[in-house]
Write a structure and sequence with these properties.
364 residues, TIM Barrel, pyridoxal phosphate, eight-stranded parallel beta sheet, Ala_racemase_N, 2 domains, EC 5.1.1.1, PLP-binding_barrel, Alanine racemase
Amino acid sequence: MADALPPRAEVVIDLDRVRHNVALLAARAPGIDAMAVVKADAYGHGAVPVARAALSAGATWLGSCSLGEALALRSAGITAPILSWLDVAGADLGAAVDAGVDLGVSSVDQLRGLFGARVHLKIDTGLSRNGCPPELWPELVRAALDSDNEVYAIWSHLACADEPGRESVDRQAKRFAAAYEVAVAAGARPRRHLANSAATLNRPDLHFDMVRFGIAMYGLNPLPQPEDLRPVMTFRSSVALTKRIPAGESVSYGQTWTAGRDTNLALVPVGYGDGVPRSLSDRMDVWLAGKRRPIRGRVCMDQIVVDCGDDPVFPGAEVILFGSGERGEPTAREWADTTGTIDYEIVTGMCRPRVVRRYLGADS
């Protein structure tokens, strides 16, 4: 019965834009493998449909964070190579072998109880998160080569590739080269992958045998210079109710905004329960009836109020909370800049029970 009701809020995912972005990124690294990272339900876009679109556009690998994410892709019938790299301590990773999922390994402990897997040994080159410390790297390489597992690749992750000119990128590249030499000297013949979205676009010297792109595939540019990346997600709702208030009346909790003149208000049934940050209260616009219009008062759990001035706006009118920006509507980057975060967090935050996903594009 609930499925028959129109959505209060929805994110529209354009799979043709995924394909455009993947083709652009793969073309920047011709002749090598390209991993489309679909962790966290494809950054809130839907892992299975995005994975299929990415593979159809030139991606050759998929990246997931957890083994559970990887197994969900396999259950959907996706057979492409998948790398999974972070699970809780003590997790039984044996299912990876049966499902043909590659595993990222950062310590000797993670090798224990692992038999017949294809592993990618991760060296910490300066991010200081996951990855093997350099002083323990020779021990990990030896243990992996002595185990009943295949050492397929070594890899690492860049901390500041989205800030061109940062010395840390070259420092990490040197540490990665040193780790590769240790692995080769020990008898391994591993492939290498280091480049993320930003390095795929601006550091061809770090492409090696595979690039891994995440945020750029979703059309969100990690670099300060423009790229022909097309935002994939549009967040939309509709007007539920309209009213006119006189000058002097206030809006929403705390009455933080008071009308300086008579004005038309539009009530939109989305709020922080649907992914609209409360910190955008009195600080955001929406696209409604052909123009940007300001939110007045605090963002509530279930609703926001839009100031339409003297323009007539009617229930049912489409409201774009963020989109590509091509019409002048707000973007996920604008939300991120206003709230002091990154656009990754904005789009990933759209994984909400009340927010419906709808797909556009071929095979949607």
